[in-house]
Amino acid sequence: MNYLIPANTKKSMLIFGVFTTADLILFGVGLTITILLLMILSPSSLLMAAIDLAPGVISGFLVLPIPNYHNTLVILKELYTFYTTRQRFIWKGWCAKDEYGDTKQIHK
User: Fold this and answer.
1) Could you read off the pLDDT of 6-31 as tens digits, one per residue?
2) What is the C-alpha separation between 42 and 33, in angstroms, rounded?
3) 59 CB burial (10 A radius; 0-12, 13-18, 19+)
4) Among 10, 35, 42, 52, which residue's Cβ finds the most Cβ atoms within 10 Å?
């Protein structure tokens, strides 16, 4: 079972309140590849510069913080999961009492 929870509930578990360790590793790898490409290929045209900068820009876009999700990579994963698998998402809000009790349904 998957539960949807408010985005800010795990914010204190994130680095700087925004990034996970995997996000920082992804961004670091993208920047490292960009720096290596800039040193190896030394861009002489606008097209080569765009190719050299692409890994850093793409990884930066993926870890860019957006509202209601901690970054773009998370929303892309959620969209992929939503459209490719059959799942049932259950909202369990912040309440002191569960009015509906057990979420299992009895079929006759």
Assistant:
1) 555 566 677 777 788 888 999 999 99
2) 13
3) buried
4) 52
